[in-house]
Write a structure and sequence with these properties.
Elements lengths: L5 H19 L15 E6 L14 H10 L4 E3 L6 E3 L2 E6 L5 E6 L13 H12 L13 H4 L3 E8 L2 E6 L6 H4 L10 H6 L14 E6 L4 E5 L12 E6 L6 H6 L5 E2 L4 H6 L6 E7 L2 E7 L9 H7 L5 H9 L3 E3 L21 H10 L7 E7 L5 H15 L3 E7 L1 H9 L5 E7 L6 H8 L18 H11 L4 H17 L3 E14 L2 E2 L15 E2 L3
Parallel strand pairs: 1-10, 1-11, 15-16, 15-17
Antiparallel strand pairs: 2-3, 4-5, 5-7, 6-7, 8-9, 9-10, 11-18, 12-18, 13-17, 13-18, 14-18, 19-20
Helix pairs in contact: 9-11, 14-15, 15-16
Length: 527
């Protein structure tokens, strides 16, 4: 047995200690900063805020801002998918799962200083559900989603409401977190119904202070029932008024920016003034097979398409870290997500599957997609078309303006179609039921574009809807995802990241599970 020379052992130990000291010199002790009150936060938005009336909200920016002005009966806790009380302090469910009783908080004020009660909740919800309501409109986009399982709503007393459902429906609380379920001031609305969307009045932590073409400003609501915001003011400015976003942020003239591009992500690498907050979005992008076409009723044909793209490499190249590959109809930030190992590009395997299906020389099909501003999408479509050509599949690519694209979908004028789907709540049912249940496979519908109809899948979906236990529901959704992986109605493509840039002086930047930045939790470090 050999022994190390004592001098060599000492020199080795000395070098080892020097290496340890060298690396530890880079570790800066983390000092917990005390949140500070005050400050005006300047927030860049890529678009302009639209109608701030809960049933009319269509775009992500307006949704993001509305969440600071309006509240519903329940909400998501911070960045999690855990539901917590909001305007309802508590609730109970009957044993049969059909009756949900909500108990409202007392002494909750709207921004117009009127008090919240059960009648205000009924006004807000029934104007979307009841065609006889004086302010009902068939144009309310989410009324069918929000009330699909609701038979009736009535006030038990001034601070208690009861919902009666058509059948047990476990996603119900998640549905009540959606923007159209937010409660508005009936008094303010009835004073000026047409202009309420420009003069919104809710119960949220912020109220509208100013709304001009250039600036939209929020300020804390002094009578807010919950935890008060730390900021004095939030000013939202459309991007068209900012010539150089990154320079403005480096100089401290801008503090928060949404809809970050892949190029902006590259430009901030190593930047000490600008920080990135990022999480996978609550959406999925895919190419659906039109299962009413005979060619796609053969499972082997559909599996062949799954071997044409190296999605991992493509997404990394095209979106530069601002997206993740998709392997399931459910996004990875959802509690029921099951990860699958997506195949790389295997053209030989694709050819074998085409040959086994009786198409050794390929075929010709029509692919429909909208014109997109994001240059990454045309590049992805080009890569897909080239891969198809390599195995003998010719693609007729119909790349149409958005309105023409929607009309082509409604006319079923496609063999394959690109589509993106996002939900405003965190329950997987928001993806699976509209996109894949047989009841939604009908002409003109803008959800089940694959026209996928499968009795086994329908039974699993309905079982998941009526099961209360989340662990059991997760198992069912894993079964659903297994089924769809083996019998694919789509090619899942990618999930974009919800990305925000913020100045280093902005702290506690949180993104909700549905992609909203929680302005009420932000604070700014003084210069």
């Amino acid at each position: 047995m050999s022994m190390m020379n004592p001098i060599l052992r000492y020199q080795w130990l000395q070098r080892f200690l020097l290496i340890i000291i060298y690396w530890f010199s880079f570790i800066v002790p983390t000092v917990a900063l005390t949140p500070q009150m005050g400050g005006t936060l300047i927030y860049r938005a890529t678009d302009e805020i639209q109608a701030l009336d809960p049933p009319l909200i269509e775009d992500s920016l307006t949704y993001n801002i509305a969440g600071n002005i309006f509240e519903g009966l329940v909400r998501y806790q911070g960045e999690s998918a855990t539901i917590e009380p909001a305007l309802a302090s508590s609730w109970k469910v009957s044993k049969d799962g059909l009756h949900w009783t909500f108990f409202l908080r007392k002494d909750v004020y709207f921004h117009d200083k009127t008090l919240l009660d059960a009648e205000a909740v009924l006004f807000s919800l029934l104007r979307q559900k009841d065609p006889k309501h004086p302010f009902y409109s068939p144009d309310f986009l989410y009324k069918d989603v929000l009330f699909a399982q609701v038979k009736s709503i009535h006030a038990v007393d001034s601070h208690t409401l009861e919902f009666e459902l058509l059948q047990p429906y476990s996603p119900f609380l998640h549905v009540l977190t959606m923007p159209p379920a937010a409660i508005i001031s009936p008094t303010a609305f009835q004073k000026n119904p047409k202009n309420f969307k420009r003069q919104p009045v809710g119960t949220g932590p912020f109220q509208v202070a100013e709304w001009t073409e250039r600036d939209f400003a929020l300020e804390p609501f002094e009578l807010y029932w919950g935890k008060k915001p730390k900021l004095d003011r939030v000013v939202i400015q459309p991007a068209k008024f900012l010539k150089n976003m990154l320079l403005s942020m480096r100089q401290g003239n801008l503090h928060l920016a949404s809809n970050v591009t892949p190029q902006e992500l590259l430009w901030i690498q190593g930047d000490t003034e600008i920080k990135l907050k990022q999480t996978p979005a609550n959406q999925v992008n895919f190419i659906a097979f039109n299962m009413e076409r005979k060619i796609f009723q053969d499972r082997q044909i559909r599996l062949a398409f799954h071997n044409l793209l190296n999605k991992k490499a493509l997404v990394r190249w095209l979106w530069q870290g601002n997206a993740v590959p998709a392997s399931s109809p459910i996004p990875p930030n959802n509690w029921s997500f099951k990860k699958f190992n997506e195949p790389s590009q295997h053209l030989d395997k694709a050819r074998q599957l085409l040959t086994a299906a009786g198409h050794p020389n390929g075929f010709s099909i029509k692919l429909l997609a909208p014109v997109r501003r994001d240059p990454s999408w045309p590049r992805l479509f080009k890569a897909f078309i080239i891969a198809c050509q390599k195995v003998g599949i010719e693609i007729q690519f119909n790349n149409l303006p958005f309105r023409d694209y929607l009309k082509a979908i409604q006319d079923q004028d496609y063999d394959m179609v690109w589509f993106g789907w996002a939900t405003d709540h965190a329950d997987p049912d928001g993806f699976i039921t509209p996109l894949l249940h047989s009841k939604n496979a009908y002409p003109g519908n803008l959800s089940n574009l694959s026209y996928y109809q499968n009795e086994t899948l329908d039974r699993l979906i309905e079982q998941a809807q009526q099961t209360d236990d989340e662990e059991q529901r997760t198992k069912i959704y894993h079964q659903i995802q297994d089924h769809l992986y083996l019998n694919p109605p789509w090619i899942p493509l990618m999930i974009p990241n919800t990305s925000y840039l913020h100045h280093r002086r902005v702290h506690n930047v949180q993104i909700s599970v549905t992609g909203r930045v929680l302005l009420e939790n932000l604070w700014m470090e003084k210069e």
